[in-house]
Amino acid sequence: MARHTTAYVYGNAARNMYADPARRIDREPTGNPHRRPKPHRKKRADKVSVLLIVLTFAIAFSICYYYLRLQFSSTYLSKTVVRLENEVLEIEKDNSNELQALEENVDLNAIYKKATKELGMSSATSDQIYTYESKKSTQVRLHNH
């Protein structure tokens, strides 16, 4: 039978077990004394990993670039719409001012006198006015003979 010998340290000397190299108990396993330690090789990234990382960054960059272009075009179109709406409002205001000026310059009494006296026109009588209903629309039209 093989006998195991173990070094035990008792008392207050246990605290200083590693302080004195002569009394130090070596707990590390001893290996082959003729064996050399292997040199540590630097870890290199393989080509597939580098390619995947580059591809991922390229896709992320292109998505960000496309998103920024869409944002720019959206902002540009919004500003264009606002500018065009302002132009429409200005044109409508000018049209309403011109219509009001035109209506102020028209004299309906002068038109009636010219039509009846100079051109020989007369007002329609009640027997000359016919009314009918259109089946295509809800408007009623008056036709004079």
Give the CA-based shape.
rod-shaped
> How many helical stretches?
2
User: In sequence order, what are the helices and strands, one letter per element?
Assistant: HHEE
Strand content: 5-15%
The CA-CA distance between the termini, in Å, is 143 Å
In round numbers, the mean pLDDT is 80
Q: Could you estimate the helical fraction of the residues in percent?
A: 40-55%
Q: Radius of gyration, rounded?
A: 53 Å
Reported for the largest beta sheet, the result is: 2 strands, antiparallel
Low-confidence spans: pLDDT under 50, at least 5 residues?
none
Query: How many distinct beta strands?
Result: 2
Order of the strands making up the biggest sheet = 1-2
Decide which structural class fits the backbone. Answer: mainly alpha
What does this 3D model show about the protein?
It is a single chain. The chain has two helices and two strands; from the N terminus they run ααββ. A hairpin with a 6-residue loop joins β1 and β2 (140-144). The protein has a two-stranded antiparallel ribbon. It has helices at residues 47-105, 108-118, and strands at 129-133, 140-144. With 145 residues, it is mostly helical.
In summary, what is this structure?
This protein is 48% helix and 7% strand.
Label this structure with key terms.
145 residues, mainly alpha, two-stranded antiparallel sheet, 2 helices, rod-shaped
Topology (SSEs and partners):
Layout: H1 47-105, H2 108-118, E1 129-133, E2 140-144
Antiparallel strand pairs: 1-2
